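Let us work through a complete example step by step.
Step 1: write down the sequence.
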Amino acid sequence: MTTSTYHDEALPASTAEIRKVVLAAALGTVFEWYDFFVYGSLAVIFGAMFFPKGNETAALLAALATFGAGFVLRPFGAIFFGRLGDMIGRKYTFLVTMLVMGLSTAVIGFLPTFETIGWFAPAILVSLRLLQGLAVGGEYGGAVTYVAEHSAPDRRGLTTSWMQITATLGLFLSIVVILICRQSMSAEAFTNWGWRVPFVLSVLLLVLSLYIRLKLEESPVFKRMKQEGRASKNPIKDTLGNAASLKIVMLSIFGAVAGQGVVWYTGHFYSLYFMTSTLKIDYQSAYTYLTIALLLGSPFFVFFGWLSDRIGRKWIMMTGMLGAAFLFIPIFQGLTYYGNPALYEFRAKNTVIIDGGDCREDQTFIGQLFQPKATKDCTRAKALLSSYAVPYETRAGGKELNLIIGGQTLKGYDENTVRAALDKIGLPKAADPGRINGPMIVLLLLSLVFLATMVYGPIGAFLVELFPTKVRYSGVSVAMQIGNGWIGGFAPFFATMLVVSSGNIFAGLLYTVAVAAITFVIGSLLIHDTRQNDINQ
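Step 2: predict the structure and record it as tokens.
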């Protein structure tokens, strides 16, 4: 991570050409993120359609885990496609990643459900998600490297920030398409077949994106490196087998990308799940609130990219990490207060006590969550209470299970009896539209997006400037996909699991807070700013 004076870099002949490069790279990446996120936006439906009925909590967690499965192969996609990108070129490599991503997404739109082909349905679904993750693993590193290597040194943060906005725009596009589909048909039709439409539409986006990217030229920095004979013969060995390069990879993951990942996915994805599944805000309102927040907040990706060209990348990102560590839990508490005031008031007054029975065997609870049918009464009680965001405490009492609800003691577990007891003490089953404070929800969501723009806006230029040209595609891809994919991508799953297992709807945020705080400490102490690094080396 050395610094030097700027060298004469091979740049496009005109500003118009730079814009063409940014547009083509960004459009293709928007499409790939759309493919990836359309599944996440429909995770609740996939839980019901592709996993066995009988344990709704298990189905939801399985759907979220399948969303997370798309992240499992992302580092391997980074290694595979990174090697190709550093050896044969940036352009052709991310054409291949786009093709794999588009075809995998389209097939999901035609996939039979669990009722039709049984366990083959989730097996095929997971396989397709793994292919999507493999493709995304090689996409971002190639696209951001390609754009950066076309950019003037004093505008690199600005130009690459357009790549950072693509993830948010991909999510935005997926939400808009899903919203249009839902509004144009009945709820029953959408559940039965309408959910397939957003996946099938990706074929049109694939054709358009491939057409535009085929018109691009190879990166000038890569061409110069090839002409000078400096290309790596084994990029992965030079990246992960070299102590100096491996150190850069590790510092970039734990000093920048991990925090960026959890902040982005919690603010964009978990917030949507939280509004619909926890606060029981109707999907149309929740999607609309988040869409407005994304529209208002997305320009800040570009703003912070531009600002990083003037004051540096590091401290903008570190400020965002620190802000997320301190503010995420209060922001989600605010979403509860303004999104479902009745639930907020109910939770302040009521806590269910789950006493004795098989709750004494707490170590079996997580395993029970993943069984197709919950067999333990304690697990079933926790799953039901969690589904309505009812706080509970567990006591290791006697052999018989007792639930204490509003002063009433229920012997054993009977779902109908528990529901009746919760109704009696005033549990709200859904958010009251008349009491939802829409402007405040949008403002709180905007604050989540704003923090994400601080950590994400400058990170493309930051990563590109860390690695030498001969291993840049590999280094950027591996760092991004381990930190963002593995650590950040599983944030919604871990958050949901922590909530269900604890009875505290805010417990899941502790994962994001901890990772953001650790990243802030490591990044502040060990990472150097990269703004003046020469990317021709």
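Step 3: interpret the result. The chain has 26 helices and four strands.
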